[in-house]
Amino acid sequence: MSYVDDVIELTVKQNPSEPEFHQAVKEVLESLRVVIEANEEEYKKNALLERLVNPERQLKFRVPWVDDNGQVQVNTGYRVQFNSAIGPYKGGLRFHPSVNVGIIKFLGFEQIFKNSLTGLAIGGGKGGSDFDPKGKSDREIMAFCQSFMTELFKYIGADTDVPAGDIGVGGREIGFLYGQYKRIRGLSEGVLTGKALSYGGSLARTEATGYGLLYFTDAMLKANDIDIKGKTIAVSGAGNVAIYAIEKAQQLGGNPVTCSDSTGWIYDPEGIDVELLKEVKEVKEVKRARLTEYAEARPSAEYHEGKGVWSVKCDIALPCATQNELLLDDAKQLVANGVVAVAEGANMPTSIEATEYLQDNDVLFGPGKASNAGGVATSALEMAQNSQRFSWDFDKVDKRLKVIMENIFANVDEAAKTYGFEKNYVVGANIAGFEKVVDAMNAQGIV
Length: 447
Ligand SMILES: NC(=O)C1=CN([C@@H]2O[C@H](COP(=O)(O)OP(=O)(O)OC[C@H]3O[C@@H](n4cnc5c(N)ncnc54)[C@H](OP(=O)(O)O)[C@@H]3O)[C@@H](O)[C@H]2O)C=CC1
Ligand SMILES: O=C(O)CCC(=O)C(=O)O
Description:
Elements: H1 3-14, H2 19-31, H3 33-38, H4 40-45, H5 48-53, E1 57-66, E2 72-83, E3 89-95, H6 101-117, E4 123-129, H7 138-152, E5 161-164, H8 171-185, H9 205-223, E6 232-235, H10 240-251, E7 255-256, E8 258-260, E9 264-267, H11 274-287, H12 292-297, E10 302-305, E11 316-318, H13 328-336, E12 341-343, H14 352-360, E13 364-366, H15 368-371, H16 374-388, H17 394-418, H18 425-443
Parallel strand pairs: 3-4, 3-5, 6-7, 6-11, 11-12, 12-13
Antiparallel strand pairs: 1-2, 2-4, 8-9, 9-10
The structure holds NADPH dihydro-nicotinamide-adenine-dinucleotide phosphate and 2-oxoglutaric acid (AKG).
2-oxoglutaric acid binds next to strand 3 and helix 16.
């Protein structure tokens, strides 16, 4: 067996019942075969891959809090500090009932290469909890966030580990988490990103992942002589990433016609009304409302229960909800309907089989670790502004974001060509991300 196969097998053996983590490791290592085989002796001697797939530190902790009925609730908190070769651990916190250690590890592992691709000095980490913020009162959210931070504060700091938002963690949660950190540590520092503007947040961070996805997609399309103008776009999700992907797609002249959540999806052939979608998101967070509210307010829209976004005829598909939401049958349907490009706004939304099917059918494919890197890149710009004790205007951040995303595409494209995988942006992203991490790890000795 090759070194790659050995390490994949070891990962499965050492981390049982963590299918998403196995999937992420397999996807990355398989596509790095050409680089790893060329350096196998050296990497093996230094156990490079074994070190890469083992987090530097993995924290699991109890989070007790009191609900509005006076009942004590107990959730589990996680922070996986995966790799700090390039810089402080950086990556979001996810609050969702599906969260477990394997999901946090897959996200943290992906984050290493994503953060490397940004060209900025950030290592990889991720965290979260199985707490469900939906339908909770503000007081309950605050109680949970304060308890979560009362444990987490011991392990994070502006130069060690800088969490941010992800599914279920937006501005409100970041505010409560930051307040508790400051109260315990007495430090006003850039320990979290995604903060509100009034206490050190960056303009354009809210928009950054969705906007960045479109800057990347546009660069990928242009490199293949395709104009986004007039293209029909299917988007999944109705949260932070989806909303700003839809907004930027419209600004660039595309026509996004769908969005979705965990219960159903919207088809709006006249184009999604993004301001209405923003309002529905707010209502959903507070009242557990559903996307039906969008359809009720918008005569051109149809609401469908369950899954189905990928059955809509489109030129471009942008999965922006969650992992494994675009499977082989969805890929077959997209190809049958003439899709030309898929770019991932979410983390690992496309299964390995679906990705291969799309690529085998000449669909341009932007992997999340490259195409959704705009969020974390802008978080690093927020860290830079915090260090400077200064705020940049929206235009300056947005322009930097655009340049970063265009550079990511150029580097991914170049790596793919250099290794003989032209137009395979999955291989290109993994190689370009991996090379910098390996350089940094090698330079720092066996740690
Ligand atoms: N926020 C950021 O800056 C970044 C986020 N990402 C990734 O983008 C994706 C979306 O994150 P974000 O928009 O921030 O999160 P939000 O919480 O704002 O929105 C998540 C959206 O996805 C839907 N969703 C979540 N879980 C599921 C599920 N199991 N099945 C179907 N739909 C689901 C939600 O529906 P419902 O409301 O019904 O739960 C909601 O519409 C995630 O994969 C995240 O890791 C990647 C890079 C950066
Ligand atoms: O901005 C950040 O640090 C978090 C981004 C993130 O979690 C992601 O890229 O998936």
